[in-house]
Amino acid sequence: MSLKPLHGVRVLDLSRILAGPWCSQQLADMGAEVIKIEKPNEGDDTRRWGPPWLEHSQESAYYLSANRGKQSVTIDMAQPEGQALLHELVKQCDVVLENFKVGGLQKYQLDYASLSALKPDLIYCSITGFGQNGPYAQRAGYDFMIQGMGGLMSLTGRADSELGGGPVKVGVAFADIFTGLYAANAILAALFQRQQTGRGTQIDLALLDVQVGVLANQALNYLTSGQVPPRLGNAHPNIVPYQAFATQDGHLILAVGNDAQFQRFCAVAGCPALASDERFLTNALRVDHRQALIPLLLPLLQQRTTEQWLAALESVGVPCGPINTLDQVFADPQVQHRQLEIQLPHPEAGQVKLVSNPIRFDDQALNATTAPPLLGQHTQQVLTEYLGLDAAQQAQLKIKGVI
Fold first, then answer.
1. What is the pTM of this model?
2. How far is 178 from 357, CA to CA, in rounded Å?
């Protein structure tokens, strides 16, 4: 596409680690110009969160996962000259994104009150662990602890009574990533609102709020019934059979979503009597009689290989799938057809492999075309083009450690 949806939008990104950078990478993929502000000689903490490292480079895989399409500018906001540079940049930006502790930017005059006075229509998005107010507002928040506090780990893992039972975190930073997506969504809404009203806004996003917000049906299971949902391993609280089963040579995810699918499964599995059993006629009954049904299915699933089950069940429209390792994921023909692994030119490594943005417009993935930047890669360019600083002025700032 010639112009991406957010072409012309400029974001000053003061965030680091994951939630904020995930948000700004989403905006960059959609066409926004993202100026990533980093501390001179140090940069985003995740640059050092390795191994693994990109070959022929000092960039960590973690950093590379969330910083595509940005410009890296090194400015020390702790120095008055650095604050002055950022104030001038803010005047030319539509959005400021930050994830400092509550009140942490006031001493630099980079808080919402200070910056909205410079640019009244500014959209200012703050990401914190617990929000801008409340008894926990001053606490630092990290994804792992938020998964625990927000209830996700009480739902994830096997029951305490089972071998290996106990709470388990999700294998990626679930709360951070969802917060980044919510933040991007909120910024888009604020941009639309500003277009209608001419007004800026302050967006307050908290990891804990997001974690509770995405508990979805499990939250409503509790709020509706008053019963605390237990950990069910790979089983589903509201659908049966909907879980992983051991096969002859591995595992199969069986996701029977309705009664007709259950009848077709029973026909393929050679157990038609289960489909007509009064205990299992409807999904609600199967949930009530989960403890009776699942032990009957376990030996049946072990009679065939995973591939045999996949072929048989897919032929009759019963949802199922394998449990892939990441090498199998990126070798999967559907993943390859959708081009979810991409490569971009990198100034040190030559090429860097990245994961595509899953959003497609007019059958084209929305991906920024530049790799995650080296530390300070665009400092000179941005200070020259946007602030009009010449080489001598920048040299003096560099001597002082401002840039």
1. 0.94
2. 14
